[in-house]
Please model this.
Amino acid sequence: MSFARELKRRIRDSVAPVLFASLTGYFCWNATQGDLGLRAYALRQQDLIAAQSNLAHAQADQAAWERRVAALRTNRLDPDVLEERARALLNLADPADIVVPYPPDKKLF
Model:
């Protein structure tokens, strides 16, 4: 009988420390592995660095396009150069222009 009493007493005395140890272990595991833990924080930091890199690239691209668009403003645009470039790109000629054909095997320059 005394063995059974001793066993019950030891079990009863060890319930609280085991419960608190398991609770502490649970919180420690969640602090490192959980959704808001240290690993998730490291992943969020990597995502933030990648997003900042993408943002810098997009801002540089936007600045380049803004420079290109600013060059098309009327106060900076030469109409003659624009017309010449448009005709060259579209492969068109003005009806008032004189066109001199040349053979395909001879180059102009």
User: Anything to note?
Assistant: The chain is about 70% helix and 0% strand. The chain has a mean pLDDT of 87.
